[in-house]
Amino acid sequence: MIDFQNIKLSSALKYTLQSMPRGKQYKNTIINSCNMTSYHVTVDAESNCILCACDGWLPIPVGKVSDFNSLEEVWNSPIAKLLQEDIDQKKFTWCAVEQCGVLSQDIKKSQYRININVDDSCNLACPSCRRELRMINSGPDYDKKVKDVDQILNWLENFSSPITISLGGSGDALASSILRKLIKEYVPKSNQKFIITTNGLLIKKIIAESKILPNISLLSISVDAASAEVYEQVRRPGKWEILLENLHWVADSKLPVCLNFVVQKTNFKEIPAFAELCNQLKFTGNLQPLNDWGTWNRKPVLNPDVYTIANGTYLDHDIANPTHPEHSEFLTVIRNAYKENTNLKISSYFDKFNKFNQPEAQ
């Protein structure tokens, strides 16, 4: 096992590390392999450099943005080498193996990627993510994040290999004043492609005049609903009609789009309608599990706060949990939707209930 005794984790990373089962707790032998730690880096809202597509899947930082002068230094840092060795040996000690997909298949990357999640500002306060709106527009934290983005841009300007640049994840990239300079003014190289993760409400306003528009390879839009009634519960304070206006603009632009749907108690019955929405707009759909980011209390407590009394606990909403009273109905809905819609992708997390991601026998 890797000795990370001297690595100081923030309270947020400690919570994330404990909230998902890790490879060191997995009892069976993991036969698949992964090379993501040599190709991917996620920069989180605390300026941590994390070598995975999702900071929650491998929440062990190899350093801060300010520690490195180049992307090459990130992937060749001492802690990076230790993590790469652990995964090469198929230990996956700190990996969230039930979420990341390695239990289902090899994860082999040949393209470099950086996820720039330095700003968790967002124009929504979805109950599954946060309790209140959060926007950083000034002050010391704002200044530091702007400096981090400038350093990352320096990395990109001096990186010669093809790379995918992903914006957003912990917040909404298009709502971020910290990322606004990158989105509006950065002129990418021909071998630099962009993936933008967004709630979609500002696409028409921000993307239409962006200099990175020709290099966008995917818009990943979080929707989580298929009606105004449900959308305005799970995507507060978003408005369904504004989302639809932006989705139709994107459809007309012919940009590649994936609509994301985080499955939970409030919305799972809308999965068929969500699949139909994807079909109508000719978008891919993606069903994802509900992760525990600490917004809800995980389970009932003796003296719940006002928010918990009004909104319930994580276990109340986690419809994918086999102990949830509506879990069986959820399985029927998701299996039927998958059978009937070829453009609907299912997270490998759900493979424990049905082998969605396994090739069919010939």
Question: Secondary structure elements and their pairing?
Answer:
Elements: H1 11-19, E1 40-43, E2 48-50, E3 63-64, H2 71-75, H3 78-88, H4 97-100, E4 112-116, H5 140-157, E5 163-167, H6 180-185, E6 192-198, H7 203-207, E7 216-222, H8 228-234, H9 240-253, E8 257-262, H10 271-281, E9 284-288, H11 306-311, H12 314-317, H13 327-340, E10 344-346
Parallel strand pairs: 1-4, 4-5, 5-6, 6-7, 7-8, 8-9, 9-10
Antiparallel strand pairs: 1-2, 2-3
Characterize the structure shown:
- The protein is an alpha/beta fold and 362 residues long.
- It has a domain at 1-110.
- 31% of the residues lie in helices and 13% in strands.
- The protein is built from 13 helices and 10 strands.
- It has helices spanning 11-19, 71-75, 78-88, 97-100, 140-157, 180-185, 203-207, 228-234, 240-253, 271-281, 306-311, 314-317, 327-340; strands at 40-43, 48-50, 63-64, 112-116, 163-167, 192-198, 216-222, 257-262, 284-288, 344-346.
- It has a 10-stranded mixed sheet with strand order 3-2-1-4-5-6-7-8-9-10, with helices on one face.
- Helix 6 links the parallel strand 5 (163-167) and strand 6.
- The longest helix has 18 residues, at 140-157.
- The N and C termini lie far apart (41 Å).
- Residues 358-362 have low confidence and may be disordered.
